[in-house]
Amino acid sequence: MAIKDMRAGEAVTIKILGKEYRVRGDGDTDLHQVATYVDGVLREMNRGAKDTQDAAILAALNIASELMGSKGSTGVPRARVQELIDLVDSA
């Protein structure tokens, strides 16, 4: 189910590295697609990392680098980055 088809703020269950998380979306993002992408990056990073925390940090750096590269010189709005950090912290 795409989060776009749901009301903003409605909770969905996603799965990353075999663990389920209940998160709320903004109504504009397909959280299942995002979770699948993050899970893939984490699994890839987990192969070369010493532990899961190292893999998470490497994955975050990888994803941030991709995002900033796609944004060009404008960068990512600080408010959006903080929203994403808060979302991860609340999981």
Record keyword descriptors for this entry:
single chain; alpha+beta; two-stranded antiparallel ribbon; 54% helix; globular; disordered N terminus
Can you give a write-up of this model?
The protein is of the alpha+beta class. It has one domain. It contains three helices and two strands, in the order ββααα. It has a two-stranded antiparallel ribbon with strand order 1-2. A hairpin with a 2-residue loop joins β1 and β2. α1 (31-46) packs across α2 (52-71). The protein is globular, with a radius of gyration of 14 Å. The two termini are 20 Å apart.
Order of strands across the main sheet? 1-2
Run of helices and strands = EEHHH
Rounded to the nearest angstrom, the distance between the terminal CA atoms is: 20 Å
Helical/strand content category: alpha+beta
Poorly predicted runs of 5 or more residues: 1-5
- Quote the average pLDDT: 78
Number of helices, counting only DSSP H or I runs of 4 residues or more? 3
